[in-house]
Amino acid sequence: MKKFICFLGAFAGLLAACSTTTSQQQVTEAPVMSAYYSDWDRAVRADVDMQNMYIGTPSKITRPIDMYMAMALALKYNYTRRLATYQENLVKGNISPAMLPTMAENLGYDNATNSSAVPADLKMSWNLLDLSSLVYQNGFVSPEIAAQEQSRKVVNNILQETRTLYWKALASQRLIPVIDDMNEYLVRVVDELNARSNEMIKEGKTPSTNLLLKKRRYLESIKQLANLRRKLDTAQAEFAGLLGMYPSTEIKLAGAEYGNFAIPSMRAKIQQLEWLALTNRPELRAFDNGTSKEELELVIKDFDTVDNSDYRQDPNYYNRKWARESNDLSMTVFEEVRHQGAGTYNSLARQRMTNIILNQVYLSWALYQSAVEDYLLNMSVASTSEDIAEDITGREGANKAISHLESAKAIIDEANAFLSYIDVQEAIGKLYASVGMDAVPADMLNDSPSVLAIQIRETLDKWKDGIFITSPKGASATLSARKPPVDISSSTLVPNVVVGTGSDVNIKIPDEVFDAVDWNGEYTTVAGSLDDAGLPSWLKYDEKTHTFSGRPTIDDEGSHKIKVYAMDKSGNSAVLSFTITVDNIYIQTMEYKGLTGYRRAKVYHKCTPGTPCAKGDI
């Protein structure tokens, strides 16, 4: 209070001095004095800042939440901040490689892997490509379109990051108590061994080799447990921060128990993922220059066609190849931005962005394959270690050193299996982000977290089954969900046909029609009506010979629009259509009646199919 009164007195004196000088001709400006903050002022200011920062977020979550609710909360409370950061980096224009570490940190990218078996260079290359896509998103479209696609990009990235941090935080909640209990016990045993060694030294004796070997085995287990705990120490704070909450917010997570983790499936083939990415990624849609379907297919042909069996035969080859090409592409992007003229840059942008996105699809697909393989192997190791620990403990007793060490080994292996499952979840998240499909329509971002969580769950369940359909709500309804088939209809090779009722129909689709498509191996065909209602009951289709056969009746008179759909194992597809018109060629000319009512006879005249024929013409 005294300090405050003195400050007022000094301020009053300063005003008086100013008033006296203003009466004279010469005006003297008072020196600018920096504001003085006491420790109490700083504490008050920090408290106000913290309250303003978390004013719209809950301080505590009482009920356990699952991954879908976590995604909903992240969108609800962190979407605006992340979008602002993303747009800020876009506004910067030309981006130098020196800026990449800071950008990666601000946008939530992480190059570390949870399991040493998963190639870290694949993950780093994926992140580098995603950052490289920022380079080509300036000055191509109207602000409205750019804002819409930037919003989609931010939502996709938030969902991907939330998936990873949710499983990491769940692992932290499950594993840290177990690790701490075992670590505490092992440290206590090591302390006892140290005490015995010190007593022997005081007595002039040298600790035995067996004692030192036993101590080393305990210390190695303690070290491994400490390394595992270090990976999980910050998981809770990172997860809370992503949800836009105070880092120490207590959040209980709900999830499957260890041993019951389901591997997220990816039933779509990589060729389908390529097309989905090229037609749905926000970066490409942000400055779509009208690239035709033929141009997109031409770009895809530059990449190796790889199936699961090909990749698994030599995964290291594909991992090294794709990572090297992706890094070279990213650096080329920055080189060209610095050295190319405006005209060259504009003509290059779309092609470069396409290559960036396709590289990301292949890298994320490779990450997923490697992560799944590593998780299955770690689960087998963990299960074996658990069986060994139980057998030895049952045979030797719980107080034996070998029982302690094998129990610690089982915990370490189970923790490694859990961490490798986090890599699986992160890899599938990157695969979804590479494709660019929307799990949440734009018009739902203002809905409640519970509504968002239900929408996210429904969408991700469909994606697991390879069903990449879009929601009927919002702007995402315009996105392409599958590659359209090539139209191979030919009026020359497969013309429209006119047949008569009661006539035998035999129409063979020539093989030359299907040669117009660059098939990958064999292809299969199915036939139906153009409106997908199935073939008419009188018409049959032989898939092996590509032949239609049947005999229409008078009831089948009319036009029947037929469609043949062909597809190979890589997802290449084609469709052809033609019309079969059934004319009633039998015209009744006479009718005779007998002595009784049921004795009647009708006489029909057979006309030529396709020509006018009426009863009056006969």
Low-confidence stretches: 1-27, 89-97, 289-302, 333-346, 471-481
- Helical percentage: 40-55%
| Rounded radius of gyration (Å) | 36 Å
Annotation, overall tally of beta strands: 12
Q: Which percent range describes the beta-strand content?
A: 5-15%
H/I helix tally: 17
Q: What is the structural class?
A: alpha/beta
How many structurally independent domains? 3
Quaternary class: single chain
Please outline the helices and strands.
Layout: H1 2-22, H2 39-53, E1 61-65, H3 67-91, H4 100-106, H5 120-132, H6 143-202, H7 209-232, H8 235-242, E2 251-253, H9 270-280, H10 282-286, H11 293-300, H12 308-313, H13 315-339, H14 342-396, H15 401-435, H16 449-464, E3 486-487, E4 497-500, E5 505-508, H17 511-514, E6 523-529, E7 539-542, E8 547-550, E9 558-568, E10 573-583, E11 586-593, E12 600-606
Helix pairs in contact: 3-6, 3-16, 5-13, 5-14, 6-7, 6-8, 6-15, 7-15, 9-14, 13-14, 14-15
Please, could you describe this protein's structure?
With 618 residues, the protein is α/β, with parallel strands linked by helices. It folds into 3 domains: 50 residues, no CATH class; 302 residues, no CATH class; 99 residues, Immunoglobulin-like (Sandwich), CATH 2.60.40.10. It is built from 17 helices and 12 strands. Strands 3, 4, 6, 9 and 10 form a 5-stranded mixed beta sheet that branches. It has a 3-stranded antiparallel beta sheet with strand order 5-8-7, with no helix packed on it. A two-stranded parallel ribbon has the order 1-2. The radius of gyration is 36 Å and the shape is elongated.
